[in-house]
Amino acid sequence: MKRTDAILSVVVLAVIGLLAYFWFAPDGVQRAPDVRMVTTTNQHLRLSEWRGHPVLVNFWATTCPSCVEEIPHLKALYNELGPKGLKIIGVSMYYDPPMRVMRMMKRRDIAYPVVNDVDQHIIRAFGMHPMVTPTSYLIDPHGRIVQHITGMIQMSKLRPRIERMLAPAPM
Question: Residue 90 CB: number of other CB atoms within 10 A?
């Protein structure tokens, strides 16, 4: 094997390794995608606009019993920690008819913003394959995904983590 072939092989393996590391990056290393969203109330959001705040992105569906069961806990978290800086965005799945989502929001009195991901651009940006609901991502104030939760959120574990992110930095 020629020296240039050996060097090229090492470089290719290093690039593949680096890409694999960032694809399967541990929590806290992967940056959150900077997606643009339009809420059900026609509010235009960009995830990067919430930098400086912890953000919880919750993918859900109206037909998912666990998702519906989780809503009161998300509402309580939002009501308690939203005024302190926590941002929550609910992302309804592409197969959920927007009118059904609106009815669910009204019936469940959901105050945090909700987006209908009808074109799946948010799902793709977060690399959700397979798409399992509920799935949530906790993003720290620096824009890093620090927790990926598949299934229902254990609020007793999540709340203290968010509260630490909301605590003022020591002087």
Answer: 27
* Measured distance CA(164)–CA(20) in Å, rounded: 30
Neighbours of 72 (CB within 10 A): 12
What stretches in the chain show pLDDT beneath 70? 1, 4-29, 130, 169-171
User: What CATH superfamily is the domain 31-166?
Assistant: Glutaredoxin (3.40.30.10)
For 77-97, write each residue's pLDDT tens digit: 999 999 999 999 999 999 999
| Token reading at 136 | 């949530």
CA atoms of 90 and 135, how far apart (whole Å): 10
The region that residue 52 occupies, defined by phi over 0 for left and psi between -120 and 50 for alpha, beta otherwise, is left
